[in-house]
Write a structure and sequence with these properties.
- The chain is mainly alpha-helical.
- It has one domain.
- It is built from 5 helices and no strands.
- Helix 1 (about 20-30) packs antiparallel against helix 2 and helix 2 (about 35-50) packs parallel to helix 5 (about 80-90).
- The longest helix has 15 residues, at about 20-30.
Length: about 100
């Protein structure tokens, strides 16, 4: 029997369209609760799918700073999150929460 080669799952490889990215972010927002790092990491995944170099240009932030801030280990400012979302073409909106 041949060996099976496994590799680590990377959600960014499966985010092909803007709609995929928005649905992914919405699913992460639904699951995150109050875990801000989870949301930052989700944005990092979308950023990698779109291209981190272009995102760095569009936001005026350094690539390495973006990788760190959006890794889930960093603690990006809300200003950084808003810049990233804008550059990714994602709008932030509010709605009434239903318990």
């Amino acid at each position: 029997m041949g060996s099976v080669k496994l590799r680590k799952w990377d959600s960014a490889e499966h985010l092909k369209t803007d709609e995929d990215m928005v649905e992914y972010l919405q699913a992460c927002l639904d699951e995150a609760g109050d875990d801000a790092a989870f949301i930052a990491k989700a944005l990092g995944t979308i950023a990698r799918a779109k291209g981190m170099t272009q995102l760095a240009r569009d936001t005026g932030l350094g690539r390495e700073s973006l990788y760190k801030a959006l890794s889930g280990e960093g603690n990006p400012s809300f200003s950084t999150i808003l810049k990233v979302m804008s550059a990714l073409g994602i709008k932030l909106h509010a709605e009434v929460a239903h318990s």
